[in-house]
Design a protein that fits this description.
Layout lengths: L1 H32 L14 H19 L8 H16 L3 H8 L8 H26 L7 H18 L22 H20 L3 H21 L4 H14 L10
């Protein structure tokens, strides 16, 4: 009963968040496609359609993670992937800033929105890193402790990162004043991928091949999605990773 309650809570909270952001994106898309005195001649912002796909994929990806077979092999993913996907959805909070620019929403402010985005990027990267680390041998009883420390660390990091949101309000890859700070999520993603490669080299079963390939694609896709030059490649890899992670007979092996 407890597990069922947790699943329902994840689905409802993530569903409400995803639906709210999706409706905002759709509103902005329709606003650009239907000319008015205020929008006529304004080009469709390039990030909107990829954002819509990323939101849908992030929610769709969480559902299989919640319903992975209750085996020892799947325990880590069942605990870490739901919050990981929720923070991936929060990465798309940029849409609120777009609404602020056109005068529809103005409650959080550009800096707060940017900090939520950066926190979500860091935390989701850490969750992907932890999945590999726990599979390589860290005691799984420490999952909650590590997750809490990761969240606190991400909060502290985002509080002290210098931002320039007003200069590039719709270019989230340029929100951080010093580009060196963006090396942190890239480094986390690189270590996560290295962990999955190490896991694959240690155990080359069908289960491990699909799991490692899925998580590597999700990790790389989520990072590439942030850069406007590689957004569509990131979406493609993200979708492939989620598709490969859908539970099948191989995922129920003990």
């Amino acid at each position: 009963m407890k597990q069922r309650t947790v699943k329902i809570a994840y689905i409802i909270s993530h569903g409400v968040l995803s639906l709210a952001l999706i409706l905002m994106v759709l509103y902005l898309i329709v606003r650009h496609l239907i000319p008015t005195n205020h929008t006529q001649g304004t080009p469709l912002s390039g990030y909107l359609v990829p954002t819509l796909l990323h939101l849908v994929l992030s929610f769709v990806g969480m559902i299989p993670a919640l319903y992975l077979p209750a085996t020892s092999r799947n325990d880590i993913e069942r605990k870490l992937m739901p919050p990981m996907y929720i923070t991936m959805t929060l990465m798309d909070i940029q849409v609120l800033l777009h609404l602020e620019i056109i005068g529809i929403f103005g409650y959080l402010g550009p800096t707060a929105i940017a900090k939520i985005h950066l926190f979500s990027l860091l935390f989701s990267s850490l969750m992907l890193l932890f999945i590999g680390m726990f599979h390589l041998g860290i005691n799984t009883s420490r999952i909650f402790r590590y997750s809490l420390l990761a969240a606190l660390g991400c909060v502290l990091f985002t509080l002290f990162v210098p931002l320039q949101v007003a200069v590039y309000p719709l270019e989230r890859s340029l929100w951080v004043t010093d580009g060196k700070f963006l090396l942190v999520p890239i480094l986390l993603g690189g270590i996560a991928i290295f962990n999955y490669v190490a896991l694959l080299s240690r155990e080359r079963t069908q289960y491990t091949v699909f799991r490692s390939a899925s998580l590597m694609a999700i990790t790389l896709g989520n990072l590439l999605y942030i850069d406007p030059h590689t957004t569509w490649l990131g979406i493609l890899l993200f979708a492939i990773g989620i598709a490969m992670g859908i539970p099948k007979e191989r995922f129920s092996q003990i």
